[in-house]
Amino acid sequence: MNVYLGKLGWRAMMSTLSGSTRAQETRRTYVYKVVQGCQIKADVFGAAAGANRAAVIWLHGGGLIFGSRTTPRPVFLEGLLEAGVVVISIDYRLAPETKLAEIVEDALDAWRWVREEGPAVLGIDPDRIAMAGGSSGAYLALLAGFHAFPRPRALASFWGFGDITTPWEAEPSAYYLEQELISREQALLTVGVSALSEQIENVDRAYFYLYCRQQGLWPIEVTGHDPRTEPRWFDEYCPVRNITPDFPPTILIHGTADMDVPYEESEALAARLNQAEVPHDFVTVAGAGHGLAGVAPDISAAADRRAVTFLLQQLAST
What we know:
Layout: H1 10-13, H2 21-26, E1 28-35, E2 38-45, E3 53-59, H3 74-82, E4 86-90, H4 100-122, E5 124-134, H5 136-147, E6 155-158, H6 167-170, H7 174-177, H8 184-188, H9 206-215, H10 218-223, E7 250-255, H11 263-275, E8 280-285, H12 297-315
Parallel strand pairs: 3-4, 3-5, 5-6, 6-7, 7-8
Antiparallel strand pairs: 1-2, 2-4
Helix pairs in contact: 3-12
């Protein structure tokens, strides 16, 4: 099966590294975790044993259902590499085979792996590590802002979200209902029962994501819990409810025309960061869709560079 998701903006978000020579030349792949017979991998860029470099962990998007470590944003990645920052782009187990609590644990295990293996193997300063991601990957990075200890030095959220119980995610999406309706039978053909962190070739798991959004089932299918009957369970998985003055400095980037993750999600995060007096930057991209789809490349690149600048400031040696 192959779903065309051009309207969704996923093609813009899931950029490839085909034109990124520097990244390709320095990429090394590691297995950072094995669980349930599933190898979970990390692509490391710019590592130099014996160095003492800052690092950024990148988490891919895809609604926690699809996506790959092979798709960090090229301009963002190149900007960090040019500044001498090591970038670690990770996979994690995917839903619905694996539920949110275990997915978060994968992200935290990657954090621990980078801190523990980074100094000797990758030339990383364990006290200068940030986390960043796109969409659901940004959501995981934001969760690490209060689940990871020590906390990341800084966070970058590209069109991320802070509350997974609100109507945009927990009720049928009018936007996705405009597309071809996906039956449960069609959706289930693209997922299985065994844990996996890499997509099976020629199986488009985006069918399952589209089905979940059309039916308003994403929170249930991804977490195994229902926000209508178990609202308190979701407290520790909603970043906007857990921002305190100890939260890491954060940059938020979001397009005003995002029909997948509403712009209001980043607005709410920015308001809470401001209330808690957490250093932050909020980059609004007028007219941009999900993944900054629909705007000129230079506008998108400028947002990436602003995120690089913010992270470099926070990762500077003290």
